[in-house]
Amino acid sequence: MTHVSRLALVAFVAAACAAPEAPPFTDADKAAIADSIEAAMHSYDAAIKALDVGGVWAHYTASPDFRFIENEAVYSLEELRPVVEGLRSLRSYEGGFGEIHVNVLGREAALADAPFIDVFTDSAGVVARVRGTVTWVWIRTPEGWRITHGQAYAVPDTTKGG
């Protein structure tokens, strides 16, 4: 086999073994992902309004890399569990997200942010109003889109109305 033939054979084998090229990532693909993330955020919001601990919990990914930061507190997934479980002690929740903005990072990841106002009523009837913003990194898992990193900035809301 000549040197040129060997090079051609090596090039052919390398090309045959290379990963197939991914289809183009179109604006329609990005829009579909953005719609899916927005729907997931509305689903999260609905789970909180229903005080559905399991429904809220289902939006997080069970990754050891999970992190959630609220103001200056940093939570692992297990450290976040009692916070989510605290929904069980509430009488009601009102409020939710304002305009949701989604930045699609790729086929498997997106960044979403939104302002929110939360109005919690505990079992004794004490009302707490909080406003702020959330920023969440969503990743595509076999189960669907899940939050893998999150940040929330929240302060007491002293305004009147929703």
Describe the protein:
The chain is built from four helices and seven strands. The model has no long low-confidence stretch (mean pLDDT 89). It is globular, with a radius of gyration of 22 Å. The N and C termini lie far apart (79 Å). It has helices at 3-17, 27-49, 53-57, 77-85, and strands spanning 67-70, 73-75, 90-97, 101-106, 109-122, 127-141, 144-156. It is of the alpha+beta class and 162 residues long. Strand 6 and strand 7 (144-156) form a beta hairpin. Strands 1, 2, 3, 4, 5, 6 and 7 form a seven-stranded mixed β-sheet that branches.
What is this structure's SSE topology?
Blueprint lengths: L2 H15 L9 H23 L3 H5 L9 E4 L2 E3 L1 H9 L4 E8 L3 E6 L2 E14 L4 E15 L2 E13 L6
Parallel strand pairs: 1-7
Antiparallel strand pairs: 1-2, 3-5, 4-5, 5-6, 6-7
Estimated helix fraction = 25-40%
Rg, alpha carbons: 22 Å
Mean pLDDT reading: 89
Terminal Cα separation, in Å? 79 Å
Q: Count the helices. How many?
A: 4
Shape label: globular
Structural category: alpha+beta
Kindly estimate the percentage of residues that lie in beta strands according to DSSP: 35-45%
Query: Biggest sheet, open or closed, and with what strands and sense?
Result: 7 strands, mixed
Low-confidence stretches: none
Helix and strand run: HHHEEHEEEEE
According to DSSP, the number of beta strands is 7
